[in-house]
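Let us practice reading a record.
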Amino acid sequence: MRVAVVNETSAVDKNPFIMSALEGRGLDVVNAGMAEPGEQPELQYTHTGLISALLLAADRVDMVIGGCGTGQGYMNSVMQYRGVFCGHLLTSLDAFLFARINAGNVVSLALNQGWGWAGDENLRLLFDQLFTDDQGKGFPAHREEPQRASRDNLNIIAGASHRCMNGTVKRLPAEILLPAITHPAAAAALGIDTIADEELRGALQSRLR
């Protein structure tokens, strides 16, 4: 599985903990946001939500691990985009249920609020339950079929209610779009010039001119 880690400025100090907790899981992990304080352009959760959605739309990753101080801002930011299914995960039980019931592709973590002692161990336990072969299986067993149907319906709703990504890129103001696609780690992970989707590639290239 291809996984992106996308940190914004308020929780950039937690990036090493996230990267460490993902090690040894057989994942292809890319650090696509801020890794150190002071990086420019400085990314807010409005930027990291967009980066996350672009990475998914460009088929660069299968899942994004993000968040912010509380996890709420990033979750609301990333959910504005088509094809994004985000869970706000605080515990390993949240991760267990999200993976099996919702089978989402974005995780929002609270990286300051409630971090506390052994916060790094909580991350490891959470990821133990998130990365499972039972993704989308459903829970409990007698609810598997209606949960799968609901997940399929979310795809239909998202397709009807959200703009396609290339249209979104054309309409976003520069102060939101440009920091997201020019931040060095995000730009490297996105690889605009080699995106297979011609319309998305063209929309992004035109905004960089």
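A brief commentary: The radius of gyration is 17 Å.
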